[in-house]
Amino acid sequence: MTLQDLRDLLGTIGLPIAHYEMLDQPDRYIVWAEYICSPLCADNNQSEILWKVQIDLFTKTEYDPAAESVVEALLKNEVAIIDRSTTYETDTGYIHHIYDVEVT
User: Which distant-in-sequence residues (6+ apart) come within 8 Å of 17 by Cβ?
Assistant: First the structure.
């Protein structure tokens, strides 16, 4: 799955999405950004690039079903979820769901 494929997959969840930053912040939205690029090599040649990507779901709804919709979409499309966490941002009032994933 390419970075563009991941972007398109996140778009199917039905929330506004942005790459790096959401300028106009609605009550629920997704931001994603790649943060590590690791070349995968075979026989001294680069065969693929492994991207580590952070997906952030911001919501003001407690137990928002969108949090599980993100997981379901990723797993259905065989995207490896490396880590998942949730925090509450007191300064903005957002519940912040964080998914670290890997795609090639």
Answer: 7, 10, 11, 29, 30, 31, 32
